[in-house]
């Protein structure tokens, strides 16, 4: 009985070393992913944070309140900035474009944003932003929709994954 249990658990452990591709077949080759990463170089990636005029909220994520300001995440696109001095009539005043941004925290008027793989600290002042600090590669790279890790793809270190597309 012990041998049977040992073989059963051993087979479970070995199965965890396999990938499942889109056809339902098991494989150990990440090259069989149905997706390939879409990347940009780090310099281009770091220049993607910008401020623009207000826009309609289409796909709201988390909401943050700091004093009279409200920040609403537009998932993976950036943050809407609203002036909330009149809570009955909040005014949408600007949009901070931060591709792949999903989270934000504020402490002592410094905004900390998850920007894909980086953590960015910045100051916002009515229509302008100043990046105070960028801590690179704090967060893991984006994994493929079919479960392959970003590390499974052969990428240069300065390449940032911004999405995935289906293989041709």
From TrEMBL:
Domain of life: Bacteria
The protein, known as: LVIVD repeat-containing protein
Organism the protein comes from: Christiangramia sediminicola
């Amino acid at each position: 009985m012990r041998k049977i249990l040992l073989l059963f658990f051993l087979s479970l452990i070995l199965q965890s070393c396999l990938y499942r591709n889109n056809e339902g077949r098991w494989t150990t080759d990440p090259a069989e992913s149905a997706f390939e990463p879409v990347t940009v170089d780090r310099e281009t990636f770091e220049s993607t944070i910008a401020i623009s005029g207000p826009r309609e909220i289409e796909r709201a994520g988390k909401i943050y309140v700091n004093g009279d300001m409200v920040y609403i995440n537009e998932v993976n696109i950036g943050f809407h900035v609203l002036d909330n001095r009149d809570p009955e009539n909040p005014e949408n005043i600007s949009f901070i474009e931060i591709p792949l941004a999903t989270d934000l925290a504020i402490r002592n008027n410094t905004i900390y944003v998850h920007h894909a793989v980086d953590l960015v600290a910045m100051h916002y002042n009515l229509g302008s932003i100043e990046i105070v600090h960028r801590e690179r590669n704090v967060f893991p790279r984006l994994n493929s929709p079919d479960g392959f890790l970003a590390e499974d793809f052969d990428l240069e270190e300065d390449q940032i994954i911004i999405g995935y597309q289906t293989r041709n």
